[in-house]
Design brief:
mainly alpha; 2 helices; elongated
Length: about 70
């Protein structure tokens, strides 16, 4: 299972109640995500990795210019 990083054979050996608990937890997370996206829909064309605040800060770090080589 991708969620747990375990092989399918490993997951098959888990207790039935543990699996149901994991599935219920995933369903709760899905419901919460759906509620959040319904209240705050993304504008069309907005990237999926945009910060929650809606602003992006880009910092450019420039290296100092190399000193000129002395003329011979």
């Amino acid at each position: 299972m991708k969620l747990t990083g375990q092989s399918p054979d490993e997951v098959r050996s888990w207790d039935h109640e543990d699996l149901l608990g994991l599935l219920a937890y995933c369903e709760l997370e899905n419901e919460e995500l759906k509620q959040r996206t319904q209240h705050h829909p993304r504008p069309a064309g907005a990237p999926s990795h945009a910060p929650a605040s809606g602003t992006t800060t880009v910092t450019y770090r420039l290296a100092p210019k190399p000193s000129p080589k002395p003329k011979r």
